[in-house]
Design goal:
Elements (H helix, E strand, L loop, with lengths): L10 E6 L3 E9 L4 E10 L5 E2 L2 E2 L2 H14 L6 E6 L5 E8 L3 H13 L9 E9 L5 E10 H13 L3 E7 H11 L10 E7 L4 E7 L2 E8 L3 H12 L3 H9 L15 H30 L8 E5 L8 H9 L2 E4 L8 E2 L11 H8 L7
Parallel strand pairs: 1-6, 3-16, 6-10, 11-14, 14-15
Antiparallel strand pairs: 1-2, 2-3, 4-5, 7-9, 8-9, 11-12, 12-13
The protein binds adenosine-5'-triphosphate and magnesium ion.
The site of magnesium ion has 4 residues, from loops.
């Protein structure tokens, strides 16, 4: 069979996580999106580390398997990048034409990128012009090896990569920007994605990303702690974790629960890091004379499934914490009861890039 050069493009949103690879395919409807396919498969152990695909063959094989088992036919993938090495900065610099900034962006970005800018892809977006001859710019820098290794694994699985986006941008698109039930897009919210190895914290104020930070902790930190303390296998530690309920730690007379006691310091440390990020955001706002506090934390990612975690975090942070899955957003039509889709928001937000912007 000869492939027509005019073969129609079809898209899949592909979230290459360190623990699981998630795929979502969407169709546009009059009011939102129909989730035509979604599927997930475990990431081969150690195959994706710090955002980089280390074992390309294993990841390619998993993508192929995922597409096949999920009955997903696609020619193109929209993928994301995230993690501690991806830098997102909202900076104020002297006002200049966009073309001039494009020429000097590597120099500007060099102040924020810990590694060499030569080894990074750099993008920017002008956010606005405060009155004093300055401008606000969002700078994004992603290491080339993160992007290129991901693109390569997709290509080897037969998918052309159409869009490389930031994971927090994808989550925001799927969870907040298009949400029909709440007014979060008008407020200052924190989107916290707790994955396996990384927790990403973004503060978004009326649609503007004010801060994005990656904390190198997540569900695997907890699984590892259980595994080590109780000498369990990976599978037993994983399933043991799902049986626990963090609300027990809040009760007046906490029931003696050794596994919870083992996890508590790790969860507390993660919550402290999240608090530190929110405090950093807050101090910058106060310096700029525009206090705009976070009023709501939206919790996503696979580890947001941990029983009672939102309630526990809410108590510790003294903020409202809501676990939020993409299938909770009524603008996504799912055929059956698919659960909340807590870990599917990145893949969904990536899949949405296949369509013209429609909030
Ligand atoms: N029911 C559950 N209860 C507790 N934890 C869960 C549950 N389901 C999944 N997890 C945890 O969620 C994590 C995987 O989440 P997710 O798929 O969002 O991670 P990932 O995107 O692959 O990782 P990362 O973003 O860090 O690269 C694992 O640590 C897993 O143990
Ligand atoms: Mg993830």
């Amino acid at each position: 069979m000869r492939l027509s050069p005019f073969r129609k493009k079809s898209f899949v949103g592909l979230d290459l996580g360190s623990h699981a690879i998630k795929a979502v395919q969407l169709e546009r409807t009059a009011t939102g999106w129909r989730v035509t396919r979604h599927s997930t498969t475990p990431t081969p152990e150690g195959a994706i580390k710090d955002g980089v695909v280390i074992d390309g063959d294993a990841v390619t094989e998993s993508i192929r398997r995922l597409l096949k088992s999920g009955h997903i036919h696609a020619t193109c993938a929209n993928i994301g990048v995230a993690g501690a090495t991806v830098v997102v900065r909202n900076v104020r610099i002297p006002k200049m034409p966009e073309a001039t900034l494009r020429k000097s962006i590597r120099f500007e970005a060099g102040r924020y990128v810990p590694t060499s800018v030569e080894d990074s892809f750099i993008e920017f977006e002008i956010l606005g012009y405060p009155d004093d001859g300055q401008m606000d710019v969002l700078i994004v820098a992603a290491p080339k090896d993160v992007v290129e290794s991901r693109v390569k694994a997709c290509q080897a699985a037969g998918l052309e990569v159409e869009v490389v986006d930031l994971e927090p941008f994808a989550s925001y698109r799927a969870l907040v920007e298009t949400d029909a039930e709440h007014d979060w897009a008008e407020k200052t919210v924190a989107i916290v994605d707790i994955g396996a190895h990384t927790t990403s914290v973004s503060v978004v104020s009326k649609g503007v990303f004010s801060m994005t930070r990656a904390i190198p902790q997540g569900g695997s930190t907890l699984t590892g702690a259980l595994k080590q303390y109780f000498k369990l296998t990976d599978a037993d530690a994983e399933s043991g974790k799902t049986q626990l309920d963090f609300r027990e730690l809040l009760s007046d007379a906490p029931q003696e629960n050794p596994p919870l006691r083992v996890l508590q310091p790790h969860v507390d440390e993660l919550i402290r890091e999240i608090r530190r990020s929110l405090n950093y955001y807050q101090s910058q706002q106060t310096d700029a004379g525009q206090p705009n506090p976070v009023t709501q934390v939206l919790l996503s990612g696979g580890s947001a499934k941990m029983n009672g975690l939102a309630g526990y975090m809410s108590q510790k942070l003294a903020l409202e914490v809501t676990p939020l899955g993409v299938f909770d957003n009524p603008r996504f039509l799912v055929t059956e009861d698919e659960g909340h889709g807590l870990e599917m928001s990145v893949a969904s937000g990536l899949a949405m890039r296949a369509f013209a912007r429609a909030a």
